[in-house]
Amino acid sequence: MKRAPIIFSIAILMVLTAAVRAQDYPNHVIKLVNGFPPGGNVDVLARVMADQMAKDLGQPIVVENRPGAVGSLAAEDVARSAPDGYTLLFLPSAHTVTPAIYKSIKYRPVDDFAWISTVSFYPFVLCVRQDSTFHSLGDLLQAARAKPDGLNYGSTGAGSIHDMTVALLSQASHTKFVNVSYRGENQVLMGILGGDVAFAVATVTVAAPQIASGALRALAVTSKTRWRDWPDVPTFEEAGLPGFEVISWSGFAAPAGTPQPIIDRLHAEVQRAIAVPSVKERLQTLGGDVQGTTPEEMRALVSRQVAMWANVAKEANIQPQ
After folding, report:
1. For 138-175, what is each residue's pLDDT tens digit?
2. Rounded Cα–Cα distance for residues 252 and 115 (Å)
3. N or C: which end of the chain has fewer CB within 10 A?
């Protein structure tokens, strides 16, 4: 009968200890892990945010790259780290695709993390070569329906978010497409320019220079509203696919169980950083629509996208690797 008071006392002690640690946070270096190579879009975004947040937190934030398996190695590392606010994860929306593709991941994509805030959002753009006979998404879909084997398209690999977006397009439009994989997005665009593939769904920032030069033509963007830099390019929904939306994002997470006062502090610092004019401008030049969320909003976003991509993979009969 005496065990209940003892357990209650231990629980109270743990809460008080966490509160004390949170009040003292941070008092040493913070590690910010991302699952992509140095110099890539995710890595650059992480470093921009780390530099600004370190100034306000009063402690260095060291960015650590751990590339592999579309970011899942980094996610697993952070999920297993101590929930003390000193190991954080900077991640893109590819995090929500991974569970649909890789059955070997050793973490729960939603519940093993304490969500902090998004930093930026950006859509994808479906583009073709400038001399293509496709002048609209409707033209492309009509051609796809007339071609029994399906039009070919370029992607960064089976199961990548670019490939999965085309799989979603296939389901929404009742068409068939054939994937041609490349090692990176720039190679995908070279494939279009060389006439090896008919189209691709690309990140807006990667495709922008080729579209601006006139080498590529943008047919539609995957966001709910038109992209700020291309007001004349319709959305997929405007092009005849109701409810179609694929938005990529970047943001911060910590291991599940991180004390709420630490999450609150980090959330406040993210909001403060993205409001700094020079930081906001830099994030926008990297292609992002700068926008923070509450931890609850970010968790809901991740949950929705995990469920969406799992359904896309199931419908497209994409088998986890």
Report:
1. 999 999 999 878 899 999 888 888 999 999 999 999 99
2. 7
3. N
In a domain, 228, yes or no: no
Residue 113: give the domain boundaries.
8-122+248-315
List, in sequence order, the alpha helices (H) in the chain: 3-23, 41-57, 72-79, 94-101, 137-146, 161-173, 185-193, 204-213, 260-274, 277-285, 295-315
Sequence-ordered list of residues with C-beta below 8 angstroms from that of 86, at least 6 positions apart, any chain = 26, 28, 29, 30, 31
- pLDDT, position 205: 82
Cis omega (within 30 of 0) on the bond before 234?
Answer: no
pTM, entire model:
0.83
Together in a domain, 127 and 115: no
β-bridge mates for residue 179, sequence order:
153
**Beta strand 177-181 pairing with 30-34:** unpaired
Burial class (CB in 10 A: 0-12, 13-18, 19+), 261: middle
Same domain, 108 and 14: yes
Write the pLDDT tens digit of every residue in 277-311: 999 999 998 878 999 999 999 999 999 999 999 99
The reply to whether 181 falls in a domain is: yes
- Domain annotation covers residue 233: no
Q: What is the DSSP code (8-state) at residue 235?
A: B
pLDDT at 16 over 50: no
The CATH number linked to 183 is: 3.40.190.10
Cα(279)–Cα(110) distance, integer angstroms:
28
Which pLDDT score is estimated for 218?
98
**Number of separate domains in the chain:** 2
Contact present, 272 and 103 (Cβ < 8 Å): no
Length of the chain: 321
